[in-house]
Amino acid sequence: MNKLSCIIIDDEPSGRIVLKELLVKFCPNVEVLGEAENIIEAYAEIKKKNPDFILLDIQMPGGNGFELLKKFEVIDFEVVFTTSYEKYAISAIKFSALDYLLKPVDVPDLLASIEKVKKTREEKQNNQPLIVNLLNNLDETNTEKKLALHHQDKVKLLNLS
Question: Which of 39, 87, 108, 115 could make an S-S bridge to 68, C-beta 3.0–4.6 Å?
Answer without folding.
Answer: 39
